[in-house]
Amino acid sequence: VQLQASGGGLVQAGGSLRLSCAASGRTFSSLNMAWFRQAPGKEREFVAAISRISTWAGGSTYYADSVKGRFTISRDNAKNTVYLQMNSLKSEDTAVYYCAASARLYGRNWPTDGMDYWGKGTLVTVSS
């Protein structure tokens, strides 16, 4: 599976960005998709995830507490793409954002070492 993230850039605090991640190489709809981020000098952390539609979870979404209410993850299986809409951005959201895919469905915590596929990151810089 190849994942390609895009949509990063420079935005002022309080602004919005939408990240996209296009998948190819395998049936996208069978994968659980997630976004992670890594700020300078910090470990990569979970941001948001969305389950594949075919599971009992039926497209359920999961968020880190730090982004809940501000970020929204969604997927378009027809376009093999997962999105991350980021609103009310803060300087602490500055990071390289990565999309990832997993055959396994996790709950509230999605471990970085539990993902099967990773894309290259896209940089989001929030200026205060």
Write the layout of secondary structure elements.
Elements: E1 2-6, E2 9-12, E3 17-24, E4 32-38, E5 45-50, E6 61-63, E7 71-76, E8 81-86, E9 95-102, E10 117-118, E11 122-127
Parallel strand pairs: 2-11
Antiparallel strand pairs: 1-3, 3-8, 4-5, 4-9, 5-6, 7-8, 9-10, 9-11
What is the number of E strands? Answer: 11
Could you describe the largest sheet, including whether it forms a barrel? 7 strands, mixed
Q: Helix and strand succession?
A: EEEEEEEEEEE
Protein structure class = mainly beta
Tell me the radius of gyration: 14 Å
Q: Specify the overall morphology.
A: globular
- Estimated helix fraction: under 10%
User: Uncertain runs with pLDDT below 50, 5 residues or more?
Assistant: none
What is the count of DSSP helices, taking H or I runs of 4+ residues?
Answer: 0
Fraction of residues in β-strands: over 45%
Integer average pLDDT: 93
From the N-terminal CA to the C-terminal CA, the straight-line distance is: 37 Å
